[in-house]
Amino acid sequence: KKTMLGIGAIIGTGVLVLTGLVAARDAGPAVIFSFMIAAIVCGFAALCYAEVASTLPVSGSVYTYSYATIGEFIAHLMGWTLLSVYVVTTAAVAGGWTGYFNNLVSGFGLEIPTELLKIPSQGGIVNLPAVVITLVLTWLLSRGTKESKRVNNIM
Fold first, then answer.
1. Backbone CA torsion sign across 33, 36, 42, 48
2. Which residue windows are transmembrane per the record (predicted)?
């Protein structure tokens, strides 16, 4: 029942946001090799998690595994590092989504002021679409797995 939710979480929007940019600016046609190298690296990371999960059959992630193998201090650092990664990743994906959203509404003849599409360091006031989508998704996730799965399946 949760297969589609898992697929949506695994694939994410990074593939959609960055693939064209990487192919156009950096790798060109060799982008397929970049994907193959990334797949191998991800496979090794997955094997590491599988090994630890089979050794320590408890629910958890980086914090739990670090706590059980290295100790509380390192686990604490790993937990905060993971939280920081989630915050930065959420901001980056929401910022990438803004570009797609702006293109979508432009197709309907609507224009969002530039000041509401950029953060202050880029000459704007606030990236309003990114803030709104982050708040909407936070609300959706707080509603529970059933509602999140339903919306994910629709998308």
1. negative
2. 7-24, 30-52, 73-99, 119-141
Residues 90, 134: Cα–Cα separation, whole Å? 8
User: Taking the domains of the chain in order of start, what are their residue ranges?
Assistant: 3-154
pTM to 2 decimals?
Answer: 0.66
Phi, psi of 94 (to 5 degrees): -65, -40
- Report the b/e string of 108-147 with b at 16+ CB within 10 A: eeeeeeeeebbeeeeeeeebbbbeebbeebeeeeeeeeee
pLDDT in tens, 72-101: 999 999 999 988 988 888 888 888 889 889
63, 82 contact by CB (below 8 A)? yes
Contact by Cβ (8 Å): 37, 31 = no
Q: How many residues does the chain have?
A: 155
